[in-house]
Specification:
The protein is of the alpha/beta class. The chain is built from 13 helices and 13 strands. Helix 4 links the parallel strand 4 and strand 5. Helix 1 packs parallel to helix 13 and helix 5 packs across helix 7. The two termini are 25 Å apart.
């Protein structure tokens, strides 16, 4: 393996802006995109990416699978800087075991995702998509939706993004309930949130918004059994991880009229191609609004996240302190 004298930083996270590229180049790093297009999703590793990884000291990544085998194959790769906060596609234990470092970019796109979440609540509740399609077809009949005002909103998880959603919802005078395995009474009091069991949240919520991390315990947390506990007019919004919801069960519930609708920024088909047909059927429903995992993608949020990821790389490669709260796994001192 030939390693270049100038440290190479592989950047495959989409929409990585020139300001952040320049920040890396000003520190003497050679920036490569591994032939990944500016607007492409790096959800699998291409031969061109493998070629770039052979010389890379750092990798600013979106959602590619980073396994122990991959890390062992590229021993010169010192840091994986995940642009975003989720890292379920990275083997964090292997990162630490092999003496590397894994970082995320907390705080950079939380406002963007929170805006998107409330937007999906409104879009589904007020039936924006159905109205739009009717007007496209030349129909002028009025579609009657439902208000967010003074409804009960259930937050599954009360982390940083969910807290920002809660703050935005105050203006709608909603009742806020939340289920979180690690409840913080101080935060709940500040936000006016009542902590409840998951069963209570499912039964009482008019809108349910998912903000849980993807773990073995939360995979398909919303399945046929849990969806059956929801109110018939309940609206499910997912801006977290597609695998939190069993899309097959969700589609069945929607088709049977057992749910009011769904707003989905993430879908199971993102990582499971066998679910593509399910996604197509969801998209065809009038009470479903889907976006392409763009909840965290605003110009402002991406710029913040890109620059923070670049700062993490600079710090790791120059043996400087990595920005606060960014380190997920660190095996450098092992």
């Amino acid at each position: 393996m030939i390693v270049t004298s100038t440290p190479v930083v592989l950047v495959t996270a989409r929409f990585f802006d020139q300001q952040s590229v320049q920040a890396l180049r000003e520190r003497g790093f050679n920036v490569s995109n591994g032939c990944v297009a500016y607007d492409a999703v790096d959800n699998f590793i291409t031969p061109q990416m493998h070629a770039a990884l052979a010389n890379a000291r750092a990798w600013i990544a979106g959602i590619p699978p980073v396994s122990r085998q991959l890390l062992e194959r590229y021993p010169n790769l010192r840091i994986i800087a995940r642009r975003g906060v989720g890292y379920d596609t990275v083997d964090a234990n292997a990162v630490k075991d092999l003496g590397r470092v894994l970082t995320i970019t907390p705080g950079s796109n939380e406002a963007t995702v929170a805006d998107h979440t409330v937007g999906l609540m409104l879009a589904v509740g007020k039936k924006f998509m159905e109205s739009h399609r009717k007007m496209q077809a030349g129909e002028r009949s009025v579609v009657v939706g439902t208000e967010l005002y003074r409804k009960t909103v259930g937050l599954v998880g009360l982390g940083r993004i969910a807290r920002q959603v809660a703050r935005r919802l105050k203006g709608f005078e909603v009742r806020l309930i939340a289920h979180d395995p690690f409840p913080d009474p101080r935060v709940a009091e500040e936000l006016g949130v009542e902590h409840v069991s998951l069963d209570q949240l499912l039964k009482e919520s008019d809108f349910i918004s998912l903000h849980a991390p993807l773990t073995d315990g939360t995979r398909h947390l919303f399945n046929a059994q849990t969806l059956a506990q929801l109110k018939p007019a309940a609206i499910v919004v997912n801006t977290a991880r597609g695998e939190l919801v069993d899309d097959v069960a969700l589609l069945a519930a929607l088709k049977a009229g057992r749910l009011g609708g769904a707003g989905l920024d993430v879908l199971g088909s993102e990582h499971d191609p066998s679910l593509e047909e399910v996604t197509r059927e969801l998209l065809a429903l009038p009470n479903v609004v889907c976006t392409q995992h763009t909840g965290g993608s605003s110009h402002e949020g991406l710029q913040r996240a890109n620059l923070l990821a670049a700062q993490c790389v600079i710090a790791a490669l120059e043996n400087l302190p990595i920005p606060p709260n960014c380190i997920v796994a660190d095996g450098r001192s092992s």
